[in-house]
Amino acid sequence: MLVGDLVGTFNIKHLEFSCIKEQLTLNEMVENATKAATNTAIDAFQILMAAGRQKVSLKTSRYVLKEKVLCNALWYITNHHSTINDASMRKQAVLPIPKIYNDYDGYNDIKRKRVKSCPLSASLLDSHAQALYSLLMKPVVNSSPSWKQGAEDVKQLADCLIAYREHLLVQNETTQANQSKLYPVRTIDKEATIEHRRGNLLGQIKDKYGKINEAVFNAEVMVPVVFDESKHLNKPFESNTERFRFFKDLQLKCPIDIIRFSPGGSSVSTICIVKVSGQNRSEPEMLTQGARLLQTVRPKLKEYHTRAQRRMFRENLKNVASLLPSVANLIYQELALDASAAEHPVTQERLRLIFLGQSDLIPDLRVLNPGRPNNTFDVFFETLSKEVEKITIADDRRHGTAHLSEFISLEELVEKTAKCCPEGTAIPSKSLVRLQFAPRNPFAKSALNFTGKIDVQYKVQRRQLRIDHPDDHYCNAQFRYLKEMAIEMKEHCALLFCDDKAKVSVGEPGSPVSTGVRGKKSIVPSSTTLVALDHDMTKASLTPSVILKCKIPESIDKSFVRGQVTVLVNDSVFQMSSPFRHAVSIIKALEQDGNFPCTLLKFTDGGTDQRNTLESVKCASICVFKEMNLDMMILVIVLSTLLKG
User: CA 89 from chain center: how many Å?
Assistant: First the structure.
């Protein structure tokens, strides 16, 4: 292939050739190693090992490591060339990226990969720079003019990385120092400026100044008008150049004073235009009016307060009253005119409406759902309320906490209440009873569906909340493939979901014990907390083995958690979970249907008693295959790294 084809077709930037003076063949290396071993007692295995080591050494090149160091540095800054170059224009100490490396920008396309761009780190910049400096210490850099030029380019890149690292450290120190101040970094008294403009005596105003001229002309004297692009322009500014020219040529029918204040950072300067009296004012009069104007417009020019200011206010407020952090932040912003970004904008907006007296905008939405207009189920709900009140009564050992849910399910709650009702009482459906519960958030839109007649909620026991797993996507994909195959072979297969649930701890009588695993929501009074003893405070334990023979639906969109459930309770000491015990359980569970299926699909977790890579599990699966005379058996486990089929 020609060099031109490499450049045009594959966009090759450069080629590097490594010349080796002498290269031996494998036979020659074996022969040399054999001659070297004649004087000592050495076997054939050592001869081959010696030849293999010589062969590997010929492939190793010191230039590979040098290329890798430079490649890593260029790859790290591939999406940050503009950031470093822009900083070099503003800061003299920052050096731009050398021009020879400008073509190495944008190779890591983060938009196409849909990943977030990571900012440059001072520690990583220093690491790459030190690696580049280590290359410059090699003797080869002075071996030829080409190496000298390449070393100079590498040095410029290393100097650029070090300079930007120092810039980041200075910026971090400055930010930390500013945030620790007990006063704003930029104050209105020191940073605000006033500019005086005379009125247009001819009365001719440009079209682009029409709206702002009308707003200022109709305002009273010494009353500031805060400039707003959406109100005072026909269309917003498209660039900073257009913004600069607009205020540079600004002239209205009346004399005005322009007050500018920049809070800092990337925020746009706040501009107030004030109508003043007198076309020809003296300089002392201008200074006096300017000082008065600053005090007048101070409420409209919000400052950016530091973290230390807000922290000190919250600490002092704790000595007076106990408030939520969101409420304390709102009070501080309203009183101190702090324009810093809110931590929770939605919550702050709701609190601001309440602060303004508009509490009717966010009422308890349960009042909008009075329930059924008739009294068909009043007797049932009154009885249910009494049952709940028995639970919430305080005793010597329960103070706002529940150790165990009194009701396993909603169905049990309805059945238990129905037994306490008089004969002939109308019993509502489970869904209707569920709508009488207290909602989790009474101010949310979902609270419209609840009446709140029964003061109970669904709660998850504290310390049992689960977290996400990085293999969720792969497990879900494998599970989807299994369900699609089950639908295709619906008439000739059986889909089983098998799992050993957590050990059910058995403790002392009257002392509820947690199982130590994640659990489903339980029905408890909303004024209590669901807690229990730790799972290691037990005397014994039982392990339930669950087998779900799925009723395969017609499409994958429908539920796969319906079917026949078989539960076997085993003693954790004498009836330990093993692959052969599970095999016998599956055979007995399928014997109830009469005939065995032709194909068995089994979905389990990745425990040692279900993992398909273990020999004991393989033997148990073979026993199931032969006992049931299957044509095909597919076993799938949860962990994607251990999936076998």
Answer: 35
- Tell me, yes or no, whether 272 and 411 share the same domain: no
**Quick one: 335 and 395 in the same domain?**
no
- Measured CA to CA in angstroms, residue 253 lies from 152, 201, 260, 395 at distances of 63, 7, 20, 80
Q: Tell whether 230 and 344 lie within a shared domain.
A: no
Residue 492: both structure tokens together: 């000739």
Distance, in Å, from the CA atom of 291 to the CA atom of 286, rounded to the nearest integer, reads 9
* SS3 label, residue 494: strand
Domain boundary among 179, 200, 235: 179
pLDDT, tens only, 184-241? 777 776 777 788 888 776 667 888 888 888 888 888 888 888 888 888 888 888 888 8
Note whether 538 and 506 are within 8 A (CB).
yes
pLDDT 10s digits, 278-314? 767 777 777 777 777 777 777 667 677 777 877 777 7
Distances (CA, A) of 586 to 392, 440, 624: 44, 41, 8
Domain stops at, among 321, 344, 362: 362
Q: Do 249 and 323 belong together in one domain? A: no
Cα separation values, 489 from 222, 259, 494, 598, Å: 84, 78, 9, 10
116 burial level (CB within 10 Å; 0-12, 13-18, 19+): exposed
CA dist 116 and 119 (Å) reads: 9
Sorted by sequence, the CB contacts under 8 Å of residue 117 that are 6+ apart come out as: 79, 110
Residue 36 lies in a domain: no
Residue with tokens 């669950």: 546
Q: Are residues 487 and 594 in the same domain?
A: yes
626: left (phi over 0), alpha (psi -120 to 50) or beta: alpha
User: How far, in Å, CA of 139 to CA of 149, rounded?
Assistant: 14
Q: Do 448 and 329 reside in the same domain of the chain?
A: no
Residue 577: give the domain boundaries: 472-519+533-642
Q: Tell me phi and psi for residue 58, to 5 degrees.
A: -70, -30
Q: At how many degrees (to 10) do helices 145-179 and 122-136 cross? A: 160
Question: Do 446 and 569 reside in the same domain of the chain?
Answer: no
Report field, pTM of the whole predicted structure over 0.85: no
Residue 220: DSSP 8-state: P
- Is residue 46 classed as helix, strand or coil in its secondary structure? helix
